[in-house]
Write a structure and sequence with these properties.
heterodimer; A: 212 residues; globular; B: 254 residues; 8-stranded mixed sheet; 21% helix
Chain lengths: 212, 254
């Protein structure tokens, strides 16, 4: 069975290593901290200017001046720091953020990412994604394998305008875990009860099976 | 003694004219200089060129200027769910230079730091580098003008593109505390683009939730030195406490 949204967040939570500085994108990635192993301690970065993001506030703790990049009210943990947008992206560009996990519209096997515009249909803007994909030491995409129309979002070459080229290291989908390579997606894991054939059928790029 | 306090938001923005460029602080609804934006709206000026991460929300912040057709050009990183912003862009009513968020912040900061351009990896291999971003649509489904292709150069085997920095006629900034000499302290994530916008402005106008006398702010704790600020406006208690929330994400006890 393919993973649910919660299952995806749970699988992605295993990518976070103790002591890392981590930036989580808007949407699905924000669920990840709920599933983090208690023995793993990370510091969450949000690009609007905060290191040390805490959980959502209790109703009597809500502060309109304290939000994450998804415009959600949050809290701070002990050791948190605030800074301006230029400094926030300095630490991103400067390679100080260990891991970024973000959503995508398309990913190619060589690690190209498209996630900010569908010409003629939707213009979201790139926000901080173009900066993040070059700055973070590891970039992981977390998304559904297929689009709502049933088309593969994992391609030999992206059809949408790019956010960055050769920037994604790993893709976690509801069907499997892939690493990127110029020759094809390297299959690392299958989701429970998902078959290799199903993954190959759902991927518009070569799949290289390197499961252990 | 220097005193940058101006009596009203109206007086503070009186010399902003048609065609002025404005760098504006804020991220979403947080740290947005709403009172100064309203004062600019009330003057009736048009043809404004805006530099801001977002262009407000539908009906709020810079959204009021946008909806009234007073903005002709925007440099921003994110449209998100601002339907009016997207509509005006796609119908060719405004020019929009979509700019990566970190590039936008650095353009403002380094503009105010006397640096005319910088190299960044953000946008390499994308429409930003190739100059294929539609800046203005023609209103008939075509593109009237695309963005300018960027010069690229390799440093240490890695490719970067050259981005020119930004200075503006004015900057509009929201601070938590300011002293009468313009030194500013921001609150939590309301800092965001405010210090960067302040640096980009040739005339920087601050609306402050609280104004104090020189010496009352700890010199060690000032986020924006007063040299970057020309005018300070005191908000009323109501204006200072009126703050919106986009995503009310709360958890329950127990």
């Amino acid at each position: 069975m393919a993973l649910t949204r919660e299952g995806l967040a749970m699988r992605a939570s295993k990518e976070l290593r103790n002591g890392e500085y981590v930036n989580l994108g808007i949407g699905l990635p924000t669920l990840i901290p709920n599933y983090l192993d208690p023995s793993v301690s990370v510091i969450l970065h949000t690009e609007n200017g905060l290191l040390g993001v805490g959980p959502y506030p209790y109703p009597d703790e809500v502060d309109p001046d304290l939000i994450n990049a998804g415009k959600e009210v949050v809290t701070t943990l002990p050791g948190a720091s605030f800074f301006d947008s230029a400094l926030s992206f300095s630490m991103i560009r400067g390679g100080k953020v260990d891991l970024a996990i973000l959503g995508a519209m398309e990913v190619s096997c060589s690690g190209d990412l498209a996630n900010w515009i569908i010409p003629g249909k939707l213009v979201k803007g790139m926000g901080g994604a173009m900066d993040l994909v070059h700055g973070a030491k590891r970039v992981i995409v977390l998304m559904e394998h297929l689009s709502k129309n049933g088309k593969s979002k994992l391609l030999a070459k992206c059809s949408l305008p790019l956010t960055g080229t050769q920037v994604v290291h790993r893709v976690i989908t509801d069907l499997c875990v892939f690493d990127t390579s110029p020759k094809g997606f390297i299959l690392r894991e299958l989701a429970p009860d998902v078959t290799l054939e199903e993954v190959i059928k759902s991927t518009d790029a070569p799949v290289i099976d390197q499961r252990r | 003694m220097i005193n940058k306090v101006v009596n009203s938001a109206k007086d503070a923005v009186a010399d902003i004219g048609n065609g002025s460029s404005l760098a504006v602080g804020g991220f979403g609804l947080v740290g947005v200089p709403n009172v100064l934006i309203q004062a600019v709206f009330d003057t009736g000026v048009k043809d404004l060129s805006i530099v801001s991460n977002n262009c407000g929300v539908d009906g709020g912040g810079l959204g009021i200027l946008l909806e009234a057709g007073r903005i002709s050009k925007v440099r921003a990183s994110y449209i998100g769910t601002n339907k009016e912003f997207e509509r005006q862009y796609l119908e060719g009513l405004i020019e929009l230079e979509l700019t990566p968020q970190g590039t936008l912040a650095e353009k403002m900061r380094s503009g105010g730091a006397g640096i005319p351009a910088f190299y960044t990896p953000a946008g390499v291999g994308t429409w930003v580098e190739s100059g294929e971003l539609p800046v203005k649509f023609d209103g008939k489904g075509g593109v009237e003008r695309f963005s300018k292709p960027r010069e690229a150069r390799e440093f240490g085997g890695k490719k970067y593109i050259l981005e020119e920095t930004i200075t503006t006629d004015f900057a509009l900034v929201r601070a938590y505390k300011a002293d009468t000499q313009g030194n500013c302290v921001f609150r939590k994530t309301a800092r965001n683009f405010n210090p960067n916008a302040a640096m980009a402005g040739r005339v920087t106008i601050v609306e402050a939730e609280q104004i104090v006398e020189p010496g009352e702010l700890d010199p060690e704790a000032i986020h924006l030195p007063g040299i970057y600020v020309q005018r300070v406006v005191q908000l009323t208690k109501e204006q200072a406490t009126l703050k919106g929330i986009e995503q009310m994400t709360v958890r329950q006890r127990g």
